[in-house]
Design brief:
Blueprint lengths: L5 E4 L5 H18 L17 E6 L5 E11 L2 E9 L8 H15 L4 E7 L3 H9 L3 E3 L11 E7 L2
Parallel strand pairs: 4-5
Antiparallel strand pairs: 1-2, 2-3, 3-4, 5-7, 6-7
Amino acid sequence: MIRTVSVDREPWESADATRLCAAQRAELDARYGNDDHEPGEPPTGETVSVFLVARDADGTALGCGGLRFLGDREAEVKRMYVDPSARGTGVATAILRALEDAARAAGVRTLLLETGTAQPDAMRFYEREGYRRIPNFGVYQGEPLSVCYARDLP
């Protein structure tokens, strides 16, 4: 079932943003068996310039995602997450498209992202949505659990 959602900017520190990011971290901790699976500096409200939350018609927060601008017309997708109850309903695609629109509006030409080897569902999703696998970039270079993707924005 495809859900109709609204995707809007929200402060990184809002209650729903905090809850969704915590749920994402807990899921990754469970998948990787520890809480040490993110190379580099964790994202913050200062480094994630755009943060979006998807909500259903009742206002329930279903997912989130953010952009960390890297300079040179590139940005990285951060904290992309959809509540398990809403997966497979188009929420993730709505968030990703809204992130792409926000990136384009900011002059970004290439979106980069990192996911991991214990997230085959995420890898399939990004590939289906037009992202191509690339060599690990930045802090992810040499990280055996990291899998990186990019998409050039038209």
